[in-house]
Please model this.
Amino acid sequence: MSLMRKNLLILFLFLFVSTFFSHRLYKISVRNGESKSELSYLVRNGLDYISAREFAGLLGAKNFYNSETAKIESNFSKYLLKLTARSQFVVVTNKENNSQKVYQIPLSTLFIKEDVFVPLKYMIEYYKQVSGSELTYEQNSKNLIITKADSIEDAIANQKDDEAEKEKPEAASTRKHDVYDILVEEKANGTLITLKTNKAIQIPRSSINNGTLYVFLSNATVMPGLAAKAKPAGLVDKIKQHFISAKNVQLEFALKDGYSSTETFLDPETNYLMITIHNKMFAKPETEDADKSKWNFDCVVIDAGHGGKDPGTIGVTGVREKDVNLAVALKLGKLIENNLEGVRVVYTRKTDEFIELYKRGKIANEAGGKLFISIHCNSTETKDNGYRGFEVYLLRPGRTKEAIRIAEFENSVIKYEENPNRYEKLTDENFILVSMVHSQYMRYSESLSDFLNQNWKREVSIPSLGIKQAGFYVLVGASMPSVLIENGFLSNRKDEAYLASNSGQKVIAETIFNSIKMYKEFYEKEIGK
Model:
């Protein structure tokens, strides 16, 4: 056998064995009353992930699995539990009143062998609630005990918020109609209209004419008098509804000045229709010169990731991410201050201090930033494995396993914050919708990303891995075009040495600066300056 064929065979065996062991399943011993059974699980980053399909079956639920969307719905006696592969969202529906809650667990679920595997540590409380059982897991011995309780407090039903209280007296009548509520909310970058529905309905046609947004609902029933009960907010001034026929209804939203465009989305988890009305931000202003100044490219916000008690990732030889991020940020800021006349630089931090994620976006917004750049370094779980490169991220739901992993790590900084619960607002539809609202900035963010990617390939010795997308909390908070840069992998010796060196940091800062210059020219052409 030739040397090449031997090497190919060794490589094949290595890949086969690596794949086999990465998805190797083990068994948890389960005791349910007098009966004993087993539950498939695997270990990922020290956590036990269990088969959602098997566990729901052990708890007495019937499962429905959609192979196209990789969703599993478990039908318990009182609740429906919906899980999606590679997602952090958990949807619980109360079958009695059809109320729905959306929660977020710290880590994404896994997709393995046509099944969804969930981190038991973070899911066990939800399983207790939907099954009506006491669950005790002994991690060291891998024993799980299921105890059917005669009376368990219904934790989900007792979670009453203002919206649930408002809907309760209307439950009998609203459930008769496909669209049973209209909620209008003012957001940072526009206005959100939520049409609450009992089922998935066709995305309606819509148009804006003479300052009124018309939404045409076909083959759907709408509760009479719904528009009169809805409360206008934000860009919405008045709401009307007209019945063309029993199942063809036109909703009219009279708009205030300041709107630019609208988009309609279907939330796949709730089946609610979401209509976003964007503020007029980047349209060419038809005002006097004095008013045009607010559109000037006059402020760049630089965010050095991590800091203080949060070191970020640690390199092969101990280099701390927070130190590299700050060094690059300060060098970049100095280049802008010295070379871009009329452009202010605002730092989320200039020293080794811990700044909470929500405050970073707040700093950017209050400064009137026209661009937000968050600077980071990457890492892999295993050190010095040869993987290296630069990446630039846009705010969109992660599409790849690696992008989701990186977002999970960067978002995990909230564990250092005094009140991480403030991010619970991002666990329901608001998290998805904030991303939608950012769509008005997306073209500008994409342009900056493209300039960064082009210049990086020409100027920096660290290879570029391109433009990617993921959901980062720090980008959600910034109401302006924004990107998150991963300058390289501290888990790689070559990247770490380059990132830790003064010369490497200087080249990186110059590359980002050149990209900002190109973006500034593009932006000013867009607004007609």
